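Hi team, as promised in this morning's meeting, here are the two structures we talked about. I've kept the exact order from the run log so nobody has to guess. The first one is mostly here for context; it's the second one we should focus on when we meet again. Sequence first, then the predicted structure tokens.
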Amino acid sequence: MTRFSSLEPHAQGSSPSAARPIEQSVLSDEVTTDRLARIDGFLAHAAPQTPFLVLDLDIVRAQYQALRAWFPFADIYYAVKANPSTEVIGALADLAASFDLASSGELERCRKSNIPADRLSFGNTIKREADIVQASASGVSLFALDSIAELEKLARAAPGARVFCRIAVDSRGAQWPLTHKFGCDAEMAGGLLLRAKVLGLRPAGVSFHVGSQQTDPSQWTRPIEHAARIFRTCARAGVELELLNLGGGLPARYRAAVPTLATYARTIEGALAASFGSSRPRIII
């Protein structure tokens, strides 16, 4: 049975590493050595039974601050499914992070951490109708979709909700592609968003995901171009979209080196400027 413990050596809100953003998605060797020494000390003191996972919340905070530093034009959402522990959720909530949900259980964990509903998004494109009802009743008003069935379900379970459509994109360069798992083509996305308005929902925008552990920053460029075309198609039909969710996929370093966050930020910023100009929507990443 796996147990969980967080390594929290500092007083609440006083983490020194959280205040200095780091350029790369991996901590420096010097910092890593310090963290490993602290973890060794924690294990020696706690003497836990195994298996046992220790997570350093200072690193969680530092990585979040790095994203904020390099993506100041975006709202940062944490995908709760990555690690739904209350310690991680609480640490990020204290930094005013927003949260992306994939289940009713994740919603409950965020509610117990007193996270405002306007900082929650239900980003899973396949949801139980009961979970949609629960989320809507809890104040969540932003939902993802990628099919007519999900659109009709949302119209029944969360009338008046804001919805965004996920498009399928090429995931070349990703160690875990998602091309054939979620999303629809751009033409269908435009049709679904226009239909959403007819059904009493509020079409908000477009999302995509370039695949997990995406090592090629240029893979964000083409999907941003596709999204901009959907925005223009909807605008011609009288529907103004206002949200673009760039998904996840920013890589961590394991064995092989990966590009820096700065490289991803510059590439994405350039693609947004080229495709949207001065009419840039609200950005989520």
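And here is the second protein, the one for discussion:
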Amino acid sequence: MPYAHAFVVPEPRALYDALHTEFRRYPTPEMVLHLARPVPGGTEVVEVWTSAEALKSWMVANAGPAMNAVAAAGWTVPDIAPVPFDLAGLIVPAAGIDA
């Protein structure tokens, strides 16, 4: 069952860009969608994964190295709390998802 969440990376935009640069070094087919947009106070990110377990597994394997690289570049990354939400509909033919 697809899993979706949203969160805001606080300003400045360059912080989101640094995080995005590092996290995209670890691609996975379990990430169905990553979408970001500017909002007041930062950058909102919406993600859809094939499952919550797939996200957790990916985070365990990859979040540490990505966050360490961002910190080594001089950024302080605040705690960011994703908020899960139920999908009302999602169609991604290439991923075989029609929910």
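Starting points for discussion:
The radius of gyration is 14 Å.
DSSP finds two helices and six strands in the chain.
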